[in-house]
Protein backbone atom coordinates (compact mmCIF):
# COMPACT_ATOMS: atom_id res chain seq x y z
CA UNK A 1 0.00 0.00 0.00
CA UNK A 2 2.88 2.31 0.73
CA UNK A 3 4.28 1.50 -2.68
CA UNK A 4 1.01 2.42 -4.32
CA UNK A 5 1.01 5.88 -2.70
CA UNK A 6 4.58 6.41 -3.81
CA UNK A 7 3.65 5.45 -7.34
CA UNK A 8 0.67 7.75 -7.20
CA UNK A 9 2.89 10.55 -5.95
CA UNK A 10 5.38 9.93 -8.71
CA UNK A 11 2.71 9.83 -11.40
CA UNK A 12 1.48 13.39 -10.93
CA UNK A 13 5.05 14.69 -10.94
CA UNK A 14 5.80 12.89 -14.18
CA UNK A 15 2.51 14.07 -15.69
CA UNK A 16 3.13 17.71 -14.72
CA UNK A 17 6.60 17.62 -16.24
CA UNK A 18 5.22 16.18 -19.46
CA UNK A 19 2.34 18.66 -19.57
CA UNK A 20 4.44 21.75 -18.73
CA UNK A 21 5.38 23.86 -21.74
CA UNK A 22 8.99 23.71 -22.80
CA UNK A 23 11.25 26.49 -21.55
CA UNK A 24 12.39 27.82 -24.96
CA UNK A 25 8.83 28.84 -25.80
CA UNK A 26 8.52 30.76 -22.52
CA UNK A 27 11.91 32.44 -23.04
CA UNK A 28 11.28 33.28 -26.67
CA UNK A 29 8.03 35.12 -25.92
CA UNK A 30 9.70 38.07 -24.10
CA UNK A 31 12.44 38.18 -26.71
CA UNK A 32 9.83 38.34 -29.46
CA UNK A 33 8.03 41.14 -27.64
CA UNK A 34 11.34 43.01 -27.17
CA UNK A 35 12.24 42.63 -30.83
CA UNK A 36 8.78 43.75 -31.89
CA UNK A 37 9.06 46.82 -29.68
CA UNK A 38 12.52 47.54 -31.03
CA UNK A 39 11.25 47.15 -34.58
CA UNK A 40 8.36 49.49 -33.86
CA UNK A 41 10.77 52.15 -32.59
CA UNK A 42 12.83 52.14 -35.77
CA UNK A 43 11.48 53.54 -39.00
CA UNK A 44 12.53 50.50 -41.02
CA UNK A 45 10.65 48.14 -38.73
CA UNK A 46 13.50 45.66 -38.35
CA UNK A 47 15.82 45.19 -35.41
CA UNK A 48 18.90 45.08 -37.66
CA UNK A 49 18.26 48.58 -39.02
CA UNK A 50 18.34 50.26 -35.58
CA UNK A 51 22.13 50.37 -35.01
CA UNK A 52 22.80 51.34 -38.62
CA UNK A 53 20.47 54.34 -38.36
CA UNK A 54 22.06 55.60 -35.16
CA UNK A 55 25.58 55.33 -36.57
CA UNK A 56 24.67 56.57 -40.05
CA UNK A 57 23.24 59.91 -38.88
CA UNK A 58 26.15 62.40 -39.20
CA UNK A 59 26.06 65.53 -37.09
CA UNK A 60 25.50 68.77 -38.98
CA UNK A 61 28.01 71.60 -38.50
CA UNK A 62 26.71 74.57 -36.50
CA UNK A 63 28.06 77.59 -38.38
CA UNK A 64 26.56 81.09 -38.28
CA UNK A 65 26.20 83.54 -41.19
CA UNK A 66 29.76 84.85 -40.61
CA UNK A 67 31.29 81.38 -40.90
CA UNK A 68 31.90 80.98 -37.16
CA UNK A 69 31.03 78.36 -34.60
CA UNK A 70 30.24 79.42 -31.05
CA UNK A 71 30.71 77.53 -27.80
CA UNK A 72 30.96 78.21 -24.09
CA UNK A 73 33.79 76.83 -21.97
CA UNK A 74 34.08 76.74 -18.20
CA UNK A 75 36.79 75.95 -15.65
CA UNK A 76 36.74 76.75 -11.91
CA UNK A 77 35.10 80.19 -11.67
CA UNK A 78 36.04 81.23 -15.21
CA UNK A 79 33.58 81.31 -18.09
CA UNK A 80 34.64 81.80 -21.72
CA UNK A 81 32.62 82.57 -24.83
CA UNK A 82 34.55 81.33 -27.86
CA UNK A 83 34.06 81.85 -31.60
CA UNK A 84 36.08 79.76 -34.06
CA UNK A 85 36.36 80.27 -37.83
CA UNK A 86 38.72 79.32 -40.66
CA UNK A 87 41.74 81.57 -40.75
CA UNK A 88 45.46 81.88 -40.17
CA UNK A 89 45.74 80.85 -36.52
CA UNK A 90 45.17 84.27 -34.95
CA UNK A 91 43.94 84.08 -31.33
CA UNK A 92 42.38 87.07 -29.54
CA UNK A 93 41.35 86.94 -25.89
CA UNK A 94 39.25 89.89 -24.65
CA UNK A 95 40.44 91.91 -27.65
CA UNK A 96 44.14 91.33 -26.91
CA UNK A 97 46.62 88.99 -28.53
CA UNK A 98 47.06 85.64 -26.79
CA UNK A 99 50.78 86.28 -26.11
CA UNK A 100 49.83 89.50 -24.27
CA UNK A 101 46.82 88.19 -22.32
CA UNK A 102 48.36 84.80 -21.43
CA UNK A 103 52.03 85.76 -21.12
CA UNK A 104 53.13 82.50 -19.51
CA UNK A 105 54.09 79.86 -22.11
CA UNK A 106 52.27 77.14 -20.13
CA UNK A 107 48.95 78.94 -20.58
CA UNK A 108 49.58 79.40 -24.32
CA UNK A 109 50.38 75.68 -24.55
CA UNK A 110 47.04 74.87 -22.89
CA UNK A 111 45.19 76.85 -25.58
CA UNK A 112 47.10 75.09 -28.38
CA UNK A 113 46.37 71.54 -27.15
CA UNK A 114 43.03 71.01 -28.98
CA UNK A 115 44.52 72.17 -32.31
CA UNK A 116 47.58 69.93 -31.90
CA UNK A 117 45.39 66.94 -31.03
CA UNK A 118 43.32 67.22 -34.23
CA UNK A 119 46.31 68.43 -36.33
CA UNK A 120 44.72 71.76 -37.25
CA UNK A 121 47.42 74.15 -36.01
CA UNK A 122 47.20 77.52 -37.77
CA UNK A 123 43.96 76.71 -39.62
CA UNK A 124 41.48 78.49 -37.32
CA UNK A 125 41.10 81.98 -35.91
CA UNK A 126 39.82 82.20 -32.35
CA UNK A 127 38.04 85.14 -30.75
CA UNK A 128 37.18 84.71 -27.08
CA UNK A 129 35.83 86.74 -24.19
CA UNK A 130 36.56 85.33 -20.75
CA UNK A 131 35.71 86.51 -17.26
CA UNK A 132 35.97 85.25 -13.72
CA UNK A 133 38.64 83.26 -11.95
CA UNK A 134 42.38 83.57 -12.44
CA UNK A 135 44.59 83.14 -15.47
CA UNK A 136 44.90 79.35 -15.10
CA UNK A 137 41.14 78.89 -14.85
CA UNK A 138 40.58 81.27 -17.75
CA UNK A 139 43.04 79.35 -19.94
CA UNK A 140 41.23 76.11 -19.10
CA UNK A 141 37.87 77.71 -19.88
CA UNK A 142 39.07 78.97 -23.27
CA UNK A 143 40.52 75.54 -24.08
CA UNK A 144 37.19 73.90 -23.23
CA UNK A 145 35.37 76.45 -25.40
CA UNK A 146 37.77 75.98 -28.32
CA UNK A 147 37.31 72.20 -28.17
CA UNK A 148 33.53 72.44 -28.16
CA UNK A 149 33.50 75.04 -30.95
CA UNK A 150 35.75 72.82 -33.08
CA UNK A 151 33.29 69.94 -32.73
CA UNK A 152 30.47 72.25 -33.84
CA UNK A 153 32.51 73.54 -36.80
CA UNK A 154 33.78 70.10 -37.86
CA UNK A 155 31.83 67.23 -36.21
CA UNK A 156 34.36 64.65 -37.43
CA UNK A 157 36.89 65.98 -34.90
CA UNK A 158 34.73 64.98 -31.92
CA UNK A 159 36.18 61.45 -31.33
CA UNK A 160 39.77 62.71 -31.13
CA UNK A 161 38.88 65.60 -28.83
CA UNK A 162 36.71 63.35 -26.67
CA UNK A 163 39.52 60.81 -26.33
CA UNK A 164 41.90 63.61 -25.28
CA UNK A 165 39.48 64.70 -22.56
CA UNK A 166 39.03 68.21 -23.92
CA UNK A 167 35.22 68.07 -24.13
CA UNK A 168 34.72 67.09 -20.49
CA UNK A 169 34.13 70.04 -18.19
CA UNK A 170 36.63 69.90 -15.32
CA UNK A 171 34.25 69.97 -12.38
CA UNK A 172 36.89 70.59 -9.71
CA UNK A 173 36.23 73.81 -7.84
CA UNK A 174 37.40 75.30 -4.56
CA UNK A 175 35.83 73.58 -1.58
CA UNK A 176 33.85 75.90 0.68
CA UNK A 177 35.07 76.92 4.12
CA UNK A 178 33.38 75.10 6.99
CA UNK A 179 32.38 76.74 10.26
CA UNK A 180 34.46 75.63 13.22
CA UNK A 181 37.49 75.21 10.98
CA UNK A 182 40.21 77.54 9.73
CA UNK A 183 39.63 76.65 6.08
CA UNK A 184 37.74 73.93 4.21
CA UNK A 185 39.50 71.15 6.11
CA UNK A 186 42.24 72.74 8.22
CA UNK A 187 41.46 72.83 11.94
CA UNK A 188 42.53 75.44 14.43
CA UNK A 189 45.55 74.66 16.57
CA UNK A 190 44.68 72.15 19.27
CA UNK A 191 46.19 72.25 22.74
CA UNK A 192 45.43 69.40 25.06
CA UNK A 193 46.52 71.33 28.22
Task: Give a description of the structure.
The protein has helices spanning 2-19, 23-41, 49-56, 98-101, 105-117, 135-153, 158-164; strands at 68-75, 78-86, 91-93, 96-97, 124-131. The chain is an alpha+beta fold and 193 residues long. The chain has a domain at 68-162: Ribosomal Protein S5, domain 2, CATH 3.30.230. Strands 1-2-5-3-4 form a five-stranded mixed sheet. Strand 1 and strand 2 (78-86) form a beta hairpin. Helix 5 (105-117) runs parallel beside helix 6. The longest helix has 19 residues, at 23-41. The protein is elongated, with a radius of gyration of 31 Å. The termini are far apart. InterPro entries: Ribosomal_Su5_D2-typ_SF, Ribosomal_uS9, Ribosomal_uS9_bac/plastid, Ribosomal_uS9_CS, Ribsml_uS5_D2-typ_fold_subgr.
Q: Tell me the structural class.
A: alpha+beta
- CATH class of the domain at 68-162 reads Alpha Beta
CATH architecture of the domain at 68-162: 2-Layer Sandwich
Number of helices: 7
Strand order across the largest sheet: 1-2-5-3-4
Count of beta strands: 5
Uncertain segments are 24-38
- Structural Rg: 31 Å
Proportion of beta-strand residues: 15-25%
The helix content, as a percent range, equals 40-55%
Instruction: Give the overall shape.
Output: elongated
CATH topology of the domain at 68-162: Ribosomal Protein S5, domain 2
User: Which whole number gives the mean pLDDT?
Assistant: 82
The helix/strand order is HHHEEEEHHEHH
Please summarize the sheet with the most strands. Answer: 5 strands, mixed
Span of the ends, CA to CA? 90 Å
Protein name: Small ribosomal subunit protein uS9
Keywords: Glycosyltransferase, Ribonucleoprotein, Ribosomal protein, Transferase
Organism: Puniceispirillum marinum (strain IMCC1322)
Region (Disordered): 1-30
